Amino acid sequence: MFKRKISLSGVVVGLLLTLTASSVLFGQFGGPRIISPELHPDNTVTFRIMAPLASEVRVSGEWIAGYGGSEMLTPSDSGLWSVTLGPLAPEFYGYSFLVDSVQVLDPLNGLIKRDGVRNASVLLVPGEESDLYAVKDVPHGSLAKVWYPSPTLNLTRRMYVYTPPGYADSNERYPVFYLLHGGGGDEDAWTTLGRTPQILDNLIAQGKAKPMIVVMTNGNANQAAGSGDAPVMASAAAQAPVDRTQSVGRFEESLVKDVIPYIDSHYRTVATKENRAIAGLSMGGGHTIRATNSHPDMFGYIGVFSSGTREPDEAFHQQLDALKESGVNLYWIGCGVDDFVYESAKTLREVLDAHDFEYTYYESSGGHTWANWRIYLSELAPLLFK
Amino acid sequence: MFKRKISLSGVVVGLLLTLTASSVLFGQFGGPRIISPELHPDNTVTFRIMAPLASEVRVSGEWIAGYGGSEMLTPSDSGLWSVTLGPLAPEFYGYSFLVDSVQVLDPLNGLIKRDGVRNASVLLVPGEESDLYAVKDVPHGSLAKVWYPSPTLNLTRRMYVYTPPGYADSNERYPVFYLLHGGGGDEDAWTTLGRTPQILDNLIAQGKAKPMIVVMTNGNANQAAGSGDAPVMASAAAQAPVDRTQSVGRFEESLVKDVIPYIDSHYRTVATKENRAIAGLSMGGGHTIRATNSHPDMFGYIGVFSSGTREPDEAFHQQLDALKESGVNLYWIGCGVDDFVYESAKTLREVLDAHDFEYTYYESSGGHTWANWRIYLSELAPLLFK
Known about the structure:
2 copies of one chain form a homodimer. The first copy, chain A, is α/β, with parallel strands linked by helices. Chain A has helices at residues 11-15, 189-192, 196-205, 236-239, 250-266, 283-294, 314-326, 342-354, 370-380; strands spanning 38-39, 45-50, 57-61, 71-72, 74-75, 80-85, 91-99, 102-104, 112-115, 118-125, 142-150, 155-163, 176-180, 213-216, 276-281, 301-305, 330-336, 360-364. Chain A is globular, with a radius of gyration of 23 Å.
């Protein structure tokens, strides 16, 4: 009935090789193998796609400044479209084709990253600026998808837990860094778009960051888990669309009441303020501000990425005083000069200034992008727990 | 420079909501939201894609028997193509569009599964036959990506480890099931295409399977990790194309010498033959046959999915005698009547018959498909460790 698999490609061919040791390699079936993207030694990149019936093919990627920019490909007689771009600056890019205006992921590239409900093909252009994002021959931490009870939100919820290299082979206790995603994202975002495991592995191997546990939660208070695993398949509650009006303060409460006690009781942590950090981007920056304002004794290190505040009310001022009074090891703010939240981040700095609350400010080029958030993580992680 | 993100969609819109609690919901920007796939109560499904310039749009999915079958969509005046199919039988399907013959993942569906280097959009049609594949409101196990040293293969390699619900909250020891993928796949395959975490969570919740640890390794002996994480970014060794001629027996050796000792020393296992199972599909079935023949005292439960053997040589016969002599709790073979390896699986059964080696044979409809391998896992797991 529905037991047969229609092969979207020549995958069945590969299976013919599975029973015996054959000297015939995969690529030798079906003629010369077309490669896309092909990265050249000078960091120019050739993109290729077969589209014999198309009248226009473009490629659109995160290397192009501005909204919706794209480059034309040129067809061969056989309908193979191609273009060589660059040299491209070292970066962990997302890109896709536009075939007669339809978005097409690169069929020749298995690597994909998901941003909310949108997927993009992935290209890592190597170089100094992207070096922390690469998988290197260094000790790797483990990354686990963990389900935990959240009585506060009345859900069993999912999070990712990164344990650093050496964790599994020691009895040591480690500090914990809670890392929060932004609106439209979920608990998957920092592990993929953010390259957190790679950045931490590399910073730790270089001796620049202390080995630490990193906990990446789902900040959408009415979701059990993100779309990477759940939505069409989970319970009604898990499928519920994100409703931010119902969520203000609730995620932060669950973080402190449910997540942190779970982590401290299931992992070898040092459960003190000086060994607990929190940072978040955009919506997650808002979560960070509210969680630290409401729980001054909880987090010694605070990071606010591409986020800020409106003109605060009196309660905010009082909380900030209490937070300052309680002692904070580091309050770190990162924002891009072109970020649409620039003014909010500026207001946050002004409020901190007014309270004589010491902070570190990192201003980057660019805007509200994962390119910046990877940089902020790379800058902040070495400052934690020192 | 490359700090700005080009939005492949309207993702930036979502980010505008991230700083304040807005009552405006995501879908209210940009007009009425188009849904694809839309699952109707009778399990008919409507597929939709905007392609105003296309002259032909088809949808191709695993519900269609045979290679390359597809259904036509019909355009509206605005260029929105749609078709309603089914009712579709309950199953965990992959599908994609063909827009003027170019494969296009459903841009409105964030859920994707990867088979080797090929991606497909995902659709779970609910019902009895797919019930084990759904994320349910039951206790969930954890799934971890773990890197381990493989001196045998001279690589640090990656595997997935599923620990059952309750593992993190107990001091109990658990049996271990080693589950191997096929050619063209990697350690990711059983976790996504195979729905292993969901199947185990559900079988355990129903009391049908014993709580167990499931270890999903990478069976390509010269790869450090599969393309989900590594290839363009890893070391030269990790990027090396799969070379099966170099691999025969090497993965099996590393499984026994590197993986099993690592698991037994890092997890709370019962490290006895009676509490150790192994199964694999296709190439992984070959791995299973060779690993159990070569290490008769290692695995009490053996599963061979869609695989078998050629007419065996004398050494094979001797190994099989030794394996039988050592005592095996279960030798389980699953194959589809339309599978191209059907004759190999038959030869395996005949050889076992000739040795009076007891086995269980499960013959399904269909062929060499993940639909069958999910069924075989669902059938075998309840028989383990009992």
